[in-house]
């Protein structure tokens, strides 16, 4: 009988450890979300031809959110890779955002964004943002 009682206690202990682990995970995830910052690309000027240097001097973290505000009849936003950024090309299958108010969550490393309206990227409507 004592052995059975010990098994029940051990089972309860395992459940408690599992619950504690789940609680800790929730706290950590909530803490990361609470620390995320929201940045409007181009500040008051928004996402436009002069936004290319907007990120210079700013510090970003993975999980931060960039808000792209722009005239959706003239511009868009495309998250691209380094080659797409350098060559102002949209990779096959890339999602083109066109709402005029798009939110992008930064991943760790360098995140690249362009406007793929004709000649806009070539005219400097692109940004590279590095998140720690």
From TrEMBL:
InterPro entries referenced in this protein's UniProt entry, alphabetically: BlueCu_1_BS (IPR028871), Phytocyanin-like (IPR039391), Phytocyanin_dom (IPR003245), Plantacyanin (IPR041844)
GO molecular function: electron transfer activity; metal ion binding
Domain Phytocyanin: residue ranges: 37-132
Signal peptide: 1-33
GO CC term, one of those recorded: plasma membrane
Keywords of the record: Copper, Disulfide bond, Metal-binding, Signal
Keyword Metal-binding: yes
Protein name: Plantacyanin
């Amino acid at each position: 009988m004592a052995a059975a009682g010990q098994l029940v206690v051990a089972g309860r202990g395992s459940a408690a450890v599992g619950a504690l682990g789940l609680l800790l995970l929730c706290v950590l995830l909530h803490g990361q979300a609470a620390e995320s910052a929201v940045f409007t690309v181009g500040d008051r000027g928004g996402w436009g031809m002069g936004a290319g240097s907007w990120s210079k001097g700013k510090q970003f973290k993975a999980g931060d959110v960039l808000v792209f505000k722009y005239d959706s009849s003239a511009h868009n936003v495309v998250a691209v890779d380094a080659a797409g950024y350098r060559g102002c090309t949209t990779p096959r299958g890339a999602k083109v955002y066109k709402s005029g108010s798009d939110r992008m969550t930064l991943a760790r490393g360098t995140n690249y964004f362009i406007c793929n309206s004709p000649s806009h990227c070539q005219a400097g409507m692109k940004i590279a943002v590095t998140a720690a």
